[in-house]
């Protein structure tokens, strides 16, 4: 500890932003959001000119009209909150997560087969990491039951766990899905615990019976869909090249009309030529009736024809801003907007997350393939290189530790000076592998974009907390899952 | 806090912590959590200063500090406590732990945290 008088102050690590006529600070090492008054702003601008000793700083504040004792108190407050730091400040690295981190979610790839041939598919496309040759194509009931048991036994201390059904096309193995739901409900009930389910589908195989089952069992549904027919059909095609829009549109409408127990979400993959975010959103939200729509640029090596170039991304970001503005207007009226990218970020900002890892992969979340192979997440399922063991033999702790060690934000040099790292932590492990051949590489190709987007969401957060703070409360329990 | 208003959970936790520190700083008897409770001699160097460290043994590192001066010499009552009594060949600065006061530091597992628990020794 340094004596007050001899402290030499510098600015701490924070990002300043404004919204709704107020000024805010995002304190990076903590992930904390503060509204600041003009006194704080003045102190910051004084220190921007260079480091200052305690006496100097309080004297300069006094010159600007602050009473000396007030200035002293102000400086102490900022020092204690680490908005400003002195020589004794040590940047504390984030701890690694505990080795026995309990599982929260299991993604079960019920099959690796799909009835569509979407060009950009990370499972079958040119950048695939999966090596499914010679492996089981459909998960069997024994593997599925073992997976459920594994989830329940690896999630000590959690009152509720989660299963996401995934594929291939999930509904190509609907009979198994039904059995798993029944089995998992029974096993969870025996232990007095809760379990909930969600699934991702391309919607081609939805029937009235399936929709009824999904609704009855409160299974959340995400539909992979890229917008109106002309955009959707560019890459979401059957193996003969025919687009899938006409097949799925009526089924999606039936799903939204018939499934009343959970929100139905659309997940849009943005690609070269499929970047008209506003038009896509309006179609999915207003014409089809999805409750929420989430967007993500395609994961790809940069040289693929469907990769979005830098210019394309700028356009995407412009549209994101427009949609975000609309989101804010809704929020200030107390209404929920369906742009889930904002909602997901707000949910993280409320907690003040400060991530050691970009997502829960290999921590609270694991993926299981049809053959029972365990992967860090669904995107790595069926990849020999990334396998973390098998459901029959358990998790390979050494490989898991290696994956987590590489993915830890402390080990991403480029992230250390970035103010957006508490939320980003270097970005998707899978995207990093596709781009750079290393799951632990920071996703440098979208840094500017992430910072811009985080800043946008902070501004929305600040404005809402200034003018309609009650609106934020509904996000407290929201869990963002991609 | 007067000038910062916490707007998320993390900020409110910091707010709680700072409020505690403020209360501790204002309390009449400072406790260990308060600011400026204990200050090392070498953290407020007088200029010119009187060397205040252990300079009885004239071996490199003891008669001069790491910068070649005398402002940062070892101080037996501060953070160099174990270096003195375990490794220093000059035993005068701390109690004799070999024969007369073997338990002198037994309640002090971590010097930076537990130094208040060091026993007083009356030879």
Please tell me about this protein's structure.
The complex is a heterodimer of chains A (482) and B (123). Chain A has helices at 38-48, 54-63, 68-80, 141-153, 174-190, 208-216, 229-235, 245-258, 277-288, 310-332, 340-351, 397-407, 421-424, 429-436, 447-467, and strands at 8-11, 14-19, 22-27, 32-36, 52-53, 84-85, 105-109, 160-166, 194-201, 220-224, 264-270, 292-297, 365-368, 374-375, 389-390, 394-395. By secondary structure, chain A is α/β, with parallel strands linked by helices. In chain A, the strands form four sheets. In chain A, strands 12-11-10-9-8-7-13-14 form an eight-stranded mixed β-sheet, with helices on one face. In chain A, helix 2 (54-63) packs across helix 3 (68-80) and helix 10 (310-332) runs parallel beside helix 15 (447-467). The two termini of chain A are 44 Å apart. The mean pLDDT of chain A is 93. Chain B has three helices and one strand. At the A-B interface, strand 3, strand 4, helix 3, helix 11 and helix 15 of A face strand 1 and helix 1 of B. Strand 4 of chain A pairs antiparallel with strand 1 of chain B.
Class computed from helices, strands and strand pairing of chain A: alpha/beta
The overall average pLDDT of chain B, rounded, is 69
Q: Largest protein interface? A: A-B, 36 and 26 residues
Rounded Rg of chain B = 20 Å
Overall, the morphology of chain B is: elongated
SS summary, helix count of chain B: 3
Number of domains of chain A: 2
* CATH fold type of the largest domain in chain B: Quinohemoprotein amine dehydrogenase
What is the strand and helix layout of this fold?
The complex is a heterodimer of chains A (482) and B (123).
Chain A: E1 8-11, E2 14-19, E3 22-27, E4 32-36, H1 38-48, E5 52-53, H2 54-63, H3 68-80, E6 84-85, E7 105-109, H4 141-153, E8 160-166, H5 174-190, E9 194-201, H6 208-216, E10 220-224, H7 229-235, H8 245-258, E11 264-270, H9 277-288, E12 292-297, H10 310-332, H11 340-351, E13 365-368, E14 374-375, E15 389-390, E16 394-395, H12 397-407, H13 421-424, H14 429-436, H15 447-467
Parallel strand pairs in A: 7-8, 7-13, 8-9, 9-10, 10-11, 11-12
Antiparallel strand pairs in A: 1-5, 1-6, 2-3, 3-4, 13-14, 15-16
Helix pairs in contact in A: 2-3, 4-5, 10-15, 11-15
Chain B: E1 4-6, H1 9-26, H2 81-87, H3 111-114
């Amino acid at each position: 500890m340094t004596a007050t008088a001899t402290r030499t102050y510098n600015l701490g690590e924070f990002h300043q932003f404004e919204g709704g006529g107020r000024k805010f600070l995002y304190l990076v090492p903590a992930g904390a959001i503060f509204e600041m008054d003009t006194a704080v702003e003045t102190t910051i601008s004084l220190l921007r000119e260079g480091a200052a000793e305690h006496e100097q700083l309080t004297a300069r504040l006094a010159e600007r009209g602050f009473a000396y004792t007030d200035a002293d108190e102000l400086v102490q407050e900022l020092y204690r909150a680490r908005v400003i730091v002195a020589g004794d400040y040590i940047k504390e690295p984030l701890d690694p997560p505990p080795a026995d981190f309990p599982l929260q979610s299991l993604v079960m790839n019920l099959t690796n087969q799909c009835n569509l041939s979407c060009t950009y598919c990370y499972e079958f496309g040119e950048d695939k990491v999966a090596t499914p040759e010679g492996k089981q194509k459909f998960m069997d009931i024994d593997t599925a039951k073992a997976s459920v048991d594994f989830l329940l036994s690896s999630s000590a201390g959690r009152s509720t766990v989660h299963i996401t059904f995934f594929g291939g096309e999930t509904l190509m193995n609907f009979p198994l899905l039904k059995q798993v739901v029944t089995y998992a409900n029974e096993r969870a009930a025996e232990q007095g615990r809760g379990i909930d389910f969600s699934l991702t589908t391309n919607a081609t195989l939805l029937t009235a019976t399936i929709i009824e089952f999904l609704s009855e069992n409160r299974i959340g549904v995400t539909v992979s869909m890229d917008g109106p027919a002309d955009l959707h059909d560019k890459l979401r095609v059957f193996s003969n090249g025919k687009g899938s829009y006409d097949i799925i549109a009526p089924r999606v409408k039936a799903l939204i009309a018939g499934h009343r127990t959970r929100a139905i979400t659309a997940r849009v993959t943005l690609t070269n030529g499929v970047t008209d975010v506003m038009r896509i959103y309006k179609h999915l939200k207003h014409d089809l009736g999805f409750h929420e729509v989430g967007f993500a640029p395609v994961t790809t090596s940069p040289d693929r024809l469907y990769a979005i170039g830098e210019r394309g991304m700028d356009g995407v970001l412009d549209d994101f801003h427009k949609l975000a503005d609309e989101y804010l207007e809704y929020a200030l009226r107390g209404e929920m907007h369906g742009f889930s990218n904002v909602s997901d970020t707000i949910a993280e900002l409320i907690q003040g997350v400060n991530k050691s890892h970009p997502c829960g992969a290999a921590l609270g979340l694991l993926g299981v393939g049809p053959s029972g192979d365990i992967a860090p997440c669904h995107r790595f399922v069926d990849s020999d290189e990334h396998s973390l063991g098998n459901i029959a033999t358990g998790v390979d702790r050494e490989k898991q530790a290696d994956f987590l060690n590489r993915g830890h934000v402390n080990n991403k040099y480029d992230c250390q000076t970035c103010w957006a790292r508490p939320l980003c932590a270097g970005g998707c492990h899978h995207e990093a592998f596709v781009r750079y051949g290393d799951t632990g590489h920071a996703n440098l190709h979208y840094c500017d974009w992430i910072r811009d987007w985080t800043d946008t969401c902070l501004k929305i957060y600040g404005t809402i907390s200034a003018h309609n703070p009650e609106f934020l409360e509904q996000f407290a329990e929201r869990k963002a899952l991609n | 806090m007067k000038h910062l208003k916490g707007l998320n959970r993390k900020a409110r936790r910091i707010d709680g912590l700072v409020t505690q520190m403020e209360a501790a700083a204002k309390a009449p008897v400072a406790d260990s959590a308060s600011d400026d409770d204990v200050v090392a001699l070498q953290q407020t160097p007088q200029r010119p200063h009187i060397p205040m460290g252990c300079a009885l043994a004239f071996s490199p590192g003891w008669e001069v500090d790491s910068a070649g001066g005398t402002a940062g010499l070892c101080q037996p009552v501060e953070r160099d406590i174990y270096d003195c009594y375990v490794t220093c060949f000059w035993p005068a600065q701390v109690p004799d732990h070999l024969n007369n006061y073997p338990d002198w530091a037994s309640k002090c597992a971590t010097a930076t945290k537990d130094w208040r628990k060091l026993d007083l020794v009356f030879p």
